[in-house]
Amino acid sequence: MRRLIELITTLLGWSRYKLGFRIKSTSGMVKVNLGCGLAVTTGWINVDGSLNAFVATLPEVFHRLAFRLSGANRYYSEPEYRHLLASNTFFHANLSYGIPSKNESVDFVYSSHFLEHLCPSEAESFLRECLRILKPGGVIRVCVPDLAYAMKMYSSGRKQEALDKYFFVEDKGSFYARHKYMYDLELLSNLLSEIGFKSIRQYDYRVGNVPDIELLDNRPEDTLFVEAKK
């Protein structure tokens, strides 16, 4: 079922890209949360390729159906799920085709626990797109599982836990849920620098220059939090 849903949402993402669906520009501050899943908050445009993001703008009856199909019922009650969809701004897009926003149209980009689900070439393309859509001086915050933390876990004797959680994440129902790559501070900083980002710096959990990180940041124990500017 999950593979069928992924196929459907992939086709929807492709068709929306071909039809030219784009995030609408606004005169105010534009904040995009890319690859968000359901880790969202108000005031942001929450962009994701999931079934959840697609049905969020549809009538409530579709929310009820999606709750039963999407796997969200493992983490949320139905009222919680419906409230998340109804009270936040979602935009459905397959980010492998690019970010559906104009050049230099975004003030802040936030992306948490998404980059590791991309192959290295896809991750580079994604970050180049982030640079493209950011306004001059705009800020990106990238949050990923910290390779250094995973290696420390492995070295301490928790080998199987480290392998299962970070390197060979097994989810037989979902190709997208698997980790394709890992980053430590040096690897991520070098990648951002090569793409053209400046002022690259590691921050602590819920500390930085991006709005609402006290609501968006999660998993403080194993996450690397890095910000950079255009």
What does this structure look like?
- The structure is a single chain.
- By secondary structure, the protein is of the alpha/beta class.
- Helices cover 39% and strands 19% of the residues.
- It has nine helices and seven strands, in the order αββαααββαβαααβαβ.
- It has helices at 2-18, 51-55, 60-69, 78-87, 120-133, 147-155, 159-167, 185-195, 213-216; strands at 31-34, 45-48, 89-92, 106-112, 134-145, 198-203, 223-229.
- Strands 3-2-1-4-5-7-6 form a seven-stranded mixed beta sheet, with helices on both faces.
- Helix 3 crosses helix 4 and helix 6 (147-155) packs antiparallel against helix 7 (159-167).
- The model has no long low-confidence stretch (mean pLDDT 92).
Keywords summarizing the entry:
230 residues; globular; single chain
Question: What's the SSE blueprint?
Answer:
Elements: H1 2-18, E1 31-34, E2 45-48, H2 51-55, H3 60-69, H4 78-87, E3 89-92, E4 106-112, H5 120-133, E5 134-145, H6 147-155, H7 159-167, H8 185-195, E6 198-203, H9 213-216, E7 223-229
Parallel strand pairs: 1-2, 1-4, 2-3, 4-5
Antiparallel strand pairs: 5-7, 6-7
Helix pairs in contact: 3-4, 6-7
Average of the residue pLDDT scores: 92
CATH architecture of the largest domain: 3-Layer(aba) Sandwich
Shape: globular
Top CATH class of the largest domain: Alpha Beta
Name the poorly predicted regions.
none
Q: For the largest beta sheet, what order do the strands appear in spatially?
A: 3-2-1-4-5-7-6
Q: Helical residue percent?
A: 25-40%
Q: Class by helix and strand content?
A: alpha/beta
Q: How would a textbook summarize the main sheet?
A: 7 strands, mixed
Question: What is the CA-atom radius of gyration, in angstroms?
Answer: 17 Å
N to C succession of SSEs:
HEEHHHEEHEHHHEHE
